[in-house]
């Protein structure tokens, strides 16, 4: 049949065109079969096109930035024609299905080949693969294009083990990079690939020091990544680990502070992966080439033209030499299994939620709630009584694991005017967050008859911290936790509402804001080492604070937060004691937003208020909208959001929407939300 090239053969915007590659296809021309790989930015399927087996890359297009990116990737792919670069066969560059069709490459990608199949290439095979790749990159650079994501996972293999450079999702013309400054670096597409999929492993380890310092990516930054790749192929070792398989590297690097330390070491201390040892038989000229490629100073790195010349001459030297020497004699057998047994026991089988619950049960006395000093003390029955609805949303976001936890405790102790809400953002594992989300509400309920709200909150944080660390220690001694230097922690924010009084207790970098008369009022301080007061407090308490890479960090663990539950290697400097604000609520107050730092990384206080202004004021919907928006704006963390809304505010807004929205579907939608809101209100206070 053959594929028809349309006239005009352009994308829907008209910015991409090609003489040889059809840019739109009739739906009958192709079909998608099963997915082969799910990346951060796309899903790759096996498919059929015009009767031929193909790989179909379907980019995730959720924002208009993503669409721009699609067109940029397409423009570049249309320009390329080289035997060392994956072959684009056709494209569907029109809505609703934006699809790239590539030649299908049977073999696993180079990363899987080395780490999953544990393939030991011979020196000659290493030379062949790196030479072909270098030629492809030389071609690319001659066109003025930088790839920006050179790594083994982006190298596909043909039947004869020929390498094909793939994934132009981050490639750009160098001339366009000139305008990118550190400010918009974030949105200009930092290497994402493995970033999310395999945490930082896929990419951080290939990033040149200048990129880690957030400077502009040049062709010489590709050379750096290529140097790391060459060494990885030679040693069979995932960079910066002494291990062979990627799954293990993932564990080594998955904890935030290790990433930070690694970044610091690469940037400031010139740390690089270990070169192969003497027994490997790697030619010394090859090792010296690798060293030059990953030189700290980009100016000392060779260009790909130099690299091609070098590799060809090393290849010439070796002509006639046998190529059967196994590459990693020292990495077989017991070394591997020992390491994997000893080092990977982070996620122990302990159920930390259960542990927290047990603790909270121990703390509570059965009739504790009968008398309630909190309500009695505010005996002013004329006081303002807000009527609240609440909703939450929490997402793993672009991370692989979820370390946030939370609790919602409305009508606490069966009192309709007392509500408590808490967010816990775990780091170095989820254990502390899971424990605290159970322990703290239990503790609060147990203390409402005996302590003031402020004392109860303070004690809840401090006691939960002590108890958590005790448990961890206990498990460590009983050998249930094998990892001696595992120090999980979490930041936490708890809002306690007692009639018209709002108490916000905060330790760490979760944040709570109140929308008062349309403007955000911040009710908590971010406890991070970049805050001078906190830094000084940590130092006074005997902790160490150092500037590392891009910000101030505490202790050898390089923690950015200065208060937390857990983190027992940093106690007492990283304290669990919360700062507590007390606010008297008035009819001016519309809603409260609480969020883990994943929300606030991407949205400012006033942006949050702005987004809620444009959202139907249903608490769960607003929470979801905020989290989704934060992900779309590049937050790469777990995100938990609570919205706690006052009836009048939501009512007024819903009315407003009903008046504004004229079309039928819109009316229907707002009506259903209105009904839902009414139901919530009557559930939370039948008399109101
Ligand atoms: N033409 C192809 N033939 C066979 N497999 C392919 C092909 N293209 C891609 N793949 C598989 O899909 C994976 C992801 O492809 P690619 O890197 O292009 O997508 P991505 O979404 O940009 O991924 P990443 O998360 O690494 O950025 C590859 O590592 C490879 O395993
Ligand atoms: Mn990729
Ligand atoms: Mn990619």
TrEMBL record:
Pfam families: Pkinase (PF00069), PP2C (PF00481). GO terms for molecular function: ATP binding; protein serine/threonine kinase activity. Residues 389-646 form the PPM-type phosphatase domain. SUPFAM superfamilies: PP2C-like, Protein kinase-like (PK-like). Keywords: ATP-binding, Kinase, Nucleotide-binding, Transferase. Residues 30-331 form the Protein kinase domain. Coiled coil: none annotated. This is Protein kinase and PP2C-like domain-containing protein isoform X1. It comes from Cucurbita moschata (Winter crookneck squash). The lineage of its organism: Eukaryota, Viridiplantae, Streptophyta, Embryophyta, Tracheophyta.
């Amino acid at each position: 049949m053959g594929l028809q090239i349309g006239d005009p053969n352009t994308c829907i915007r008209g910015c991409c065109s090609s003489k040889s590659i059809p840019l739109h296809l009739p739906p009958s021309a192709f079909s998608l079969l099963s997915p082969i790989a799910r990346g951060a930015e796309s899903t790759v399927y096996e498919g059929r096109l015009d009767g031929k087996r193909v790989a179909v890359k379907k980019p995730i297009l959720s924002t208009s930035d993503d669409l721009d990116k699609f067109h940029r990737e397409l423009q570049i792919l249309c320009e390329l024609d080289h035997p060392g670069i994956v072959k684009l066969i056709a494209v569907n560059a029109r809505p609703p299905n934006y699809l790239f069709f590539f030649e299908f490459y049977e073999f696993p990608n180079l990363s899987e080949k080395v780490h999953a199949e544990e393939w030991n290439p011979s020196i000659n095979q290493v030379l062949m693969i790196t030479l072909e790749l270098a030629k492809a990159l030389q071609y690319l650079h001659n066109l003025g294009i930088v790839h920006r994501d050179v790594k083994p996972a982006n190298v596909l293999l043909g039947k004869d083990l020929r390498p094909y450079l793939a994934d132009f999702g981050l490639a750009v013309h160098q001339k366009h990079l000139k305008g990118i400054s550190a400010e918009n670096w974030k949105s200009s597409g930092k290497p994402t690939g493995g970033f999310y999929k395999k945490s930082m492993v896929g990419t951080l380890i290939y990033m040149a020091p200048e990129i880690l310092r957030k400077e502009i990516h040049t062709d010489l930054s590709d050379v750096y990544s290529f140097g790391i790749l060459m060494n990885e192929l030679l040693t069979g070792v995932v960079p910066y680990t002494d291990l062979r398989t990627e799954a293990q590297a993932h564990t080594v690097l998955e904890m935030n502070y290790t990433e930070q330390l690694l970044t610091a070491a690469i940037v400031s201390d010139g740390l690089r992966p270990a070169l192969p040892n003497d027994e490997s038989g790697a030619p010394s000229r090859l090792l010296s080439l690798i060293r030059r490629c990953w030189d700290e100073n980009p100016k000392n790195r060779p260009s790909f033209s130099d690299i091609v010349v070098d590799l060809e001459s090393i290849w010439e030297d070796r002509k006639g030499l046998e190529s059967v020497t196994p590459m990693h004699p020292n990495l077989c057998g017991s070394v591997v299994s020992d390491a994997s047994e000893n080092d990977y026991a982070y996620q122990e089988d302990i159920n930390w939620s259960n542990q927290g619950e047990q603790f909270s049960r121990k703390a509570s006395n059965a009739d504790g709630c009968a008398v309630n000093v909190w309500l009695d003390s505010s005996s002013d029955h004329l006081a303002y009584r807000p009527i609240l609805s609440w909703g939450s949303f929490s997402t793993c976001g672009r991370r692989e694991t979820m370390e946030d936890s939370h609790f919602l405790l409305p009508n606490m102790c069966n009192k309709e005017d007392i509500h408590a809400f808490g967010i816990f953002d775990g780091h170095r594992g989820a254990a502390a967050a899971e424990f605290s989300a159970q322990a703290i509400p239990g503790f609060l309920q147990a203390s409402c008859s005996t302590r003031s709200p402020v004392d109860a909150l303070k004690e809840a944080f401090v006691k939960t911290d002590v108890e958590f660390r005790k448990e961890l220690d206990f498990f460590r001694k009983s050998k249930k936790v094998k990892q001696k230097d595992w120090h999980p922690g979490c930041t936490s924010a708890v809002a306690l509402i007692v009639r018209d009084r709002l108490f916000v207790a905060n330790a760490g970098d979760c944040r709570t804001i109140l929308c008062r008369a349309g403007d955000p009022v911040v009710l908590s301080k971010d406890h991070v080492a970049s805050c001078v007061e906190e830094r000084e407090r940590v130092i006074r308490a005997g902790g160490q604070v150092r500037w590392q890479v891009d910000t101030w960090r505490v202790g050898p663990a390089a923690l950015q937060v200065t208060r937390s539950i857990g983190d027992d290697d940093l106690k007492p400097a990283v304290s669990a004691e919360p700062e507590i604000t007390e606010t008297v609520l008035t009819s001016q107050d519309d809603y409260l937003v609480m969020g883990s730092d994943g929300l606030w990384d991407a949205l400012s206080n006033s942006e949050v208020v702005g987004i809620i202004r444009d959202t139907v004021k249903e608490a769960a919907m607003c929470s979801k909208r905020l989290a989704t928006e934060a992900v779309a704006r590049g937050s790469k963390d777990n995100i938990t959001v609570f919205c706690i809304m006052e009836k009048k505010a939501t009512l007024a807004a819903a009315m407003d929407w009903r008046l504004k929205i004229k079309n039928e579907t819109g009316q229907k939608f707002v009506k259903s939300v209105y009904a839902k809101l009414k139901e919530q209100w009557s559930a939370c206070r039948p008399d109101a």
